[in-house]
Amino acid sequence: MLRSVCFKNFVKFKEYQVMDFSGRGPFIFIGENCTGKSSVFEGIRRCLKLEYSTSISSVFDENFPSYFICNFETGLSGSNENIISGIVRLPLTNRCKNESDESMHTVQSSDERLYNEDMQDEQKGKQTEPDLSTDMESTSQQLKRQRNSSRDNPLSISGPATKRDVDLKKISIGEDVKEKNDLKSENYYKFAMKCSEEHPMFINSVEKSKDKKKLEVLQYYIVQNTDSLKKLFVDSILKQKSDSKDVDKYICTEFKSIEDRRVESNKGLESILSILTEEIVVTFPLRSIGPLQWSKSKRIAGEFREDNYREAEIRCEIMKYFLEDKGEIFDKTKEELIFKQLTQIKDYDFQLGKDGKIDLPKGKFALLKTPEGILEAKTFSILLSSKQYKTILLEEPDRGMHPQLVARMIQIMNQEKGNKRVILTTHQKEFISPWTVSDTFIFRRSKTKHRIISGKQLLGEEKDASMKDMRLATSQHISDIFFARKVLFYEGESEKLFLGELKRQILTSECSITSKLFNGDEDECEKLKRSMMKYTFIELNGKDLSTFYHTISDKLELNHLFLLDTDKNKSEQVKPERIFYWKDGDIEKMVIEMCKADDELANGLVQQNVISLDSANRTLRIKKKRKNKKRKLFLNERITCSNITESVRLLLEHCKPNDDLAAFIKRLMYLPF
Known about the structure:
Blueprint: E1 2-8, E2 17-20, E3 27-31, H1 37-46, E4 66-74, E5 81-91, H2 110-123, H3 136-152, H4 163-172, E6 186-194, E7 201-208, E8 215-223, H5 228-238, H6 245-254, E9 262-263, H7 268-278, E10 280-282, H8 305-315, H9 317-324, H10 332-343, E11 351-352, E12 358-359, H11 372-384, E13 391-395, H12 403-415, E14 421-426, E15 440-445, E16 450-454, H13 455-459, H14 463-475, H15 480-483, E17 486-490, H16 493-508, H17 514-517, H18 522-533, E18 535-539, H19 546-555, E19 559-564, E20 579-581, H20 587-596, H21 599-607, E21 611-614, E22 619-622, H22 641-653, H23 660-670
Parallel strand pairs: 3-14, 3-15, 10-13, 13-14, 17-18, 17-19, 19-20
Antiparallel strand pairs: 1-2, 1-4, 4-5, 5-6, 6-7, 7-8, 8-9, 11-12, 15-16, 21-22
Helix pairs in contact: 3-4, 5-6, 10-11, 10-12, 16-22, 18-23, 20-21
């Protein structure tokens, strides 16, 4: 089973990331689109057989090393044993330095400048021929000295920075000297090792084939040493340490001085990765299997029906693989039970027809009308019934599913705990509960970086206390916070009615707020709309969870604001800049104060049954609920949805820059993202 992964400078992620899968799962990846969820799945695939990759993953910064490393626990020898496999991508001009040294991003090393100057010479047509008189032995000694030197100072390794250095290196491994424009800009490696001390690390250097359609092995290497550097590297991976220094040192030392470990051929890496690959399966998001996407399609005509079925049947690849299996890979009785428990319908009994094609009781063409959620459910039941897959990675297995179907899927995964390690990506809030938070990973992105926050980080050391708060929070749909870009926390029902209508009217431009609130500035109005689009509103519901919410939001690096009454006990643990207090006490008093300064607004709200005029002392009051002494905005039984809509429109159109409502709106508008 997959136990953990760690990676750095990989695709979208500049900083070192560690993901621990040592719990029982299921492990849930959530986050906006383009936050890196699929990139992690991609990295895991890269750590398996070479055939699983037809390209090389991108890096965040191509000037620095990139790696993705998996830690597997497997029973290769009849007992549990850890195996580490991974990929490493090294630029030829790499400088392995501490990332705290900001100068590495802006200042070239002397070696890099020499290399760039040589390349510039080439562009100018200058001839810089390598010194071919250097013999093989002295070159080999030079490489060994470089390796020994790198062990003394592993964070200041300089790679083959000049054209001459690269040519000498090519000579030392028996390659013909190539022209400068044929030089690679990077080296790409795959490696694997059993973690016990006596086992070596097998490394293959890899490059794209000439036709660019696949990857192929270029050279083979074996690292036999069992020194302290390797022990620190292995220990850091197995214990999921949050500091990358031991991993960085090992990679910068071993992989930058690897040529003296070269062997003619070796199947060690292929053998280990083949066994790992048998125990793990990764799915891609299933789109529609049918070729028809809309009513304007030319293929909607009956003459194309047979072709449409044929194409759909070919795309049911997982189902076809399962139906053709003779019970060697899948437990078909178990699959049937899972599928029935999940769907609770009998209409979809997929079988192979006499022609070897997928058929259904209603005829083969019923395949074209099979709902996407049913197809996903079938894929899920098939993979969980496998006899060999110990780790299952599912990309959005809930696509097209009803929430009740999702709930049953979660129940089935919980039943399989201990037998399978399920890791999935989703955009469904139904997966988030107090019992799944600790095994959830939240992917977040900002303008400057992508990062992953684990549920264990959110709960912190006081897990029992945090779990209690989490159960209270989740019951109030706090799972919304994990999917949010900005959050406004508010107190009660009046605020819920007011804020919901406020947001709707601003986004739909149903009210005219530009002239008074923004002095005619249309750009400011558009800025407000863009800001409101990013907000998720979450109700505190009277529970004293503000400190908990604040802590969670800070750990998520999520911009958030609390809208509170001034009579609320001020929490010293919530930063003052994260709270907006109504200046006049509460939302009801804010409305009354606006009406006192604007007779037209007051008359309008009287007509909407929101406020009343006390004729005895000429004062304005919020209309109260029956049998309730509290006067709460919009909670009078006579107030309808139409009254709320018109009242909010009036408040926005009469809002002036000095009003408390204006201050609140501008606070929402300028809360940074």
